[in-house]
Amino acid sequence: MRLTIIGSSGSFPGPTSPASCYLVEADDFRLVLDMGNGALGALQRYTDIYRVDAVYLSHLHADHCFDLCSYWVARTFPHGGPKPRIPVYGPPGVAGRMAEAYGLDPNPGMAETFEFRELAPGNLRIGPFVVRVGRVNHPVEAFGIRLEHQGSVLTYSGDTGTCDELVELARDADLFLCEASFHDHREHPKDMHLTGSEAGEHAQRAGAEKLVLTHLVPWNDNECTLDEAQGTFDGAIDLARPGKVYEISGAADWRDRA
Shortest CA distance to 180 belongs to which of 156, 164, 152? Predict the structure, then answer.
């Protein structure tokens, strides 16, 4: 299983990164996790966008889903005619939300291009991946996801505050891609995002092997976020940076490369 960081900026695109977007590949299957603003342009550096097999939207805030609008255009009106429908997994109401975002009549909205599948807590299959999703702690309905493939485990938090369900989703994960939007020394809203130390605490409780911090908001000092996480997590930690690739092989056998 291969993870490529497409965008890791939180809340809005930063000067060096689009908003949240991650490409996961296995067995020639390409799954995009979130498609925040600015993501589609960057995604084209790492894959043919017409070879994406499925899209997963953790929740329906703009910095996680709005470039699906651009992707709808790309798949609906390319030279040679529309591309085949692909599944888009998202919270209840995802089809209507995306139609509204682009100013489309909800019937058909984007349904002729995307097959929308609404998420609910539990298990499912996406291509070669055995998947578990669970609700996490955010002001809107939001999901974390656990992907398993041939003994390797990747967990992605999406956006969340402190949350026991997230610990279970990340249990013994080889790589835990976890948001860390806030700093400990600043006041911030509750039940919205994690600090670096809270991300580390969740990874420690879960027994994750490697923690990759993401959703790094442009006004924060990322090195401070990293320092916070290192104070609460004993394993390897990295900052999610666009273009970074992680090869996840299971049994704590992972490699990363620029």
Answer: 156
Backbone torsions φ then ψ of 62, nearest 5 degrees = -55, -40
Please report, for the domain that includes residue 97, its CATH number: 3.60.15.10
pLDDT band at 56 (very low <50, low <70, confident <90, very high): very high
Predicted confidence at residue 250, as pLDDT, reads 73
CA 7 to chain centre: 9
**How does DSSP classify residue 29?**
E
Domain holding 205, by residue range, is 2-257
188 or 207: whose pLDDT is higher?
Answer: 207
**DSSP class of 162:** S
The residue behind tokens 């966008």 is 49
Structure tokens, 47 = 């894959």
Overall domain count for the chain: 1
Between the alpha carbon of residue 86 and those of residues 49, 71, 215, the distances in Å are 12, 11, 26
Return the amino acid letter for 219: W
Give strand pairing partners of 248.
254
What pLDDT is recorded for position 190?
86
